[in-house]
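Sample entry (454 residues):
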Amino acid sequence: MIRRPLLALTLLPLFSPLTGFAGVFTSNPITGDADSGISADKAYTLAVDIFDGPNRRINDAVFTGSGGAGNPATNSYTTSGLNNGFTGNVPPITGSVGGLTENFLYNGNPATYTLNNLRVGETYTTTFFNAAFGGPGGRIHNVTASDGGVLNGFDQNATPGSVLKYTFTAAANSITFAMTPLVPADTWHHYAVSNEIVKQRALLTDNFYAPANPDTNNLNFNLGARQGGLLTTGGATIPWVAVGNTQVGNATGGIDGGNYLLNAFSNGRSALDYNFNGSASAGGLAVSFDLAPNSVANPDATLWEAVNIGQSSANKNDGINDPHAHFGILFRGNGLLQAFDGSTTLTPVEPIWSETAQTNGLTRIELIAQDPTDGNPFDGVGQTDISVYAGGILRYSFSKTGGGYADNYLNFSAANIGGVDNLMVAQLVPEPGSLGLLVLTGGLLARRRRPAAR
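Predicted structure, serialized as tokens:
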């Protein structure tokens, strides 16, 4: 098999095949936050601090603790072989990223990570964070990816800290990585993992981490620790505006220990107080989140959780089919969806978003908004094309012509009790040579809010 040396390597000779859809492995040493590669603008589909509980904020990006159990899993990833835990490791690297390596899981021969909800044709970079534990040469692995990527002889102990990256174009909705030790006793140490969409820039993320919220009706509890992205640099936060029964930190439904956004009884609606239009949406915009349409398993399978986008400030907490300008889409527990343009029903025959009924299990939803005319789907010019994905599969598309939508406040609501988790609003990255990236940088600096009062 013909192999090609990879670029940007220091100390570690890594190779990956050219055949099929295989991606490319690269690696480099890290010493702390500054050279960790972690940044606020990276659009992480997941960022997990293995065998830790609370959030960890690094360079204005938020890593979620996987908890204290072995073989952690969510709807976005699963693991195997991560059976044993170790705590109290003294990090050989500094800063907040050093904290990622204080605890780890091990004992897999092989150990595996499976990443879910990938969109076929999208480019991703998966990153494994490593720290030396013992002398050089003592923790050598063969690493394989299910799309054909192969890396033989990777040493986790080669430098005090390192990252191993795999950049690939998804050929399926999932990918599995396997780490097989050359010496069975020297298994892979699992410190942290992330997966980013290469062609997106995160404007805002919110994982609703709100342990011990004294008032679960306060949607803005712990914002500084749970929000990340470009709009949160310098200590800024983007507040939520609620009407009716909306909560964060309520364990009803058993979703993520209560660390999710709960919307209840149609009147419960929660909107971000930010207009994601103009410079923020130049080049296109992606709104993604995990959704549970019926978090208490009500016998009525038609119950739903919904999202509205394209709203004005005055109407940012409108209902799903209120008449003001917006695109709304609801996801029923029976696996069907219904879409609206203002009060106009777009789906008299409801399409499928899930082949199986869903209650409190989370499914990744992505709304990708683009404009083929001027590149900006939320500037009131051209049109707004919206593609709706569930679990990485395209389920519905809509085109709002005649200028599209001019504003872009977004909100969530539910018919009974529904849930939303792990929200990300991201700007699509223009192709090389485009001026859109410069427009974004200037626009965000002009629009950035002052840090919230503390």
